[in-house]
Amino acid sequence: MTHPESSSPSTLNESSAVRPNQFLQGPFAPVGQEITVHDLKVTGTIPTELNGRLLRVGPNPIDPENPATYNWFSGNGMVHGVRLREGRAEWYRNRFVRDDQVVASRGWPEVPGPRQAVPAPRYARNNHGNTNIFAQGGHTFAFMEGGSLPFELSYELETVARSNFEGTLNGAWTGHPHRDPLTGELHGIAYRWDWSYARYLVLDAQGKIRKSVNIPLDGRPIIHDMALSRRYVVFHNGAVQAHAGLQAQGYDFPYAWDFDHRNAWGLLPREGTSDQVVWCETEPTAAFHLLGAFDLPDGRVAVDAISYDRLFHKDFTGPTEAPARLDRFVLDPSTGRSTLERLDDTPSEMPRLDERLIGVDRHRYGYFSSRTKTAADATVSRLLKRDLDKGTSESYAYGPARFGMEAVFVPRTPDSAEDDGWLMTYVSDLADSCAEVVILHAQDLSEPVARVHIPQRVPLGFHGNWVPDEELPS
Ligand SMILES: [Fe+2]
Known about the structure:
This protein is mainly beta and 474 residues long. It has one domain (4-471): Methylamine Dehydrogenase, Chain H (7 Propeller). Helices cover 5% and strands 40% of the residues. It contains four helices and 33 strands. The longest helix has 9 residues, at 9-17. The model is unreliable at 1-18 (pLDDT under 50). It binds fe (ii) ion. The site of fe (ii) ion has 6 residues, from loops. Fe (ii) ion binds next to loops.
């Protein structure tokens, strides 16, 4: 049965082709130059305990094949890094992640390492590395989901090799691994267009896959993120599903809102097997980014997610069709049901928390990137802190024509309180065509403690992480 609101491929094509692609313009517009800048100008004082690299990655398309069908998720990757040491900003670097399209376009040598054929769609077949960047096992990796293999980068962010984690990764990695602070392992859910299952993967602290569980799926969803509670791996089989009609029309990211799909959260016991997965049905939603999950004393599980009431219904260039809002889903594995509570009506995305709590304890605070419009249609970009116990929020506005990105929380000391630490994010300044790393104390969003000035714009992108010297020294 087809839902009356379902779209036919012919209407899909017309709806996107008539509009300019916003993900190739303004704050999203790619930069062409790789630069290296030493001894960056700083306003304020960089906390001396911040020694390491603030890394991020995002799409920076070198030559989109068709701007009408270009999807934000599909651009070639570009990494950005700022190296902090003892109160100084030693360097900024931005580098393309050298996928085949980038090296062919620039005449650079091919990158060595393992390869695999991915049949479709284009965003995975082109094998980019645009979604996330982590250090694990003494190496830095940029990567994406859907079937692409990770890229290993040097400390200075040059692409060194393609990687399958020393032969232990097969098929696909994830865009959103989460680190268990007790073991140092990275946990993620991989999926592919051509798989009828998702794959739960654990990458050990030495950088090798130690656990792999195939989980049969109803449908072919995008499963972009996951969360860990103390007892469960939590993930969502939501309303955005693979769409063969879009694939046939050449869309980079051929996934669409499926009105007929039964949405459900999956709960896999942390060291369990695929037959132990419990599904909890929910209203149709797209929950691409999860803030975190925790177990309740009565056996239920709470997961806080950024969810959309509609996405990829008529616009296949990116997540544009509904505001992103913070919801709490409470899942009952004993009944297979769930309840939903809207925690915050403020449009917000890119959720982060104090990662010492992942899989360990209930989080109280969440940090988000929020963009709203003024009456005059100007965008206001803010860093938003949400106190989930009190139900209150505070925020820092970056200023006119300035766009903040995902903020990373770094505890001030290993045992400081949940919000006693630093929030760091890249900010793109459209008017002056430059960027900054802004550092705030998470308990005082009135004013940054430091702003590190970068003389080139950083396009709005995806995810990043702080890699302290204790984790990976230079
Ligand atoms: Fe993401």
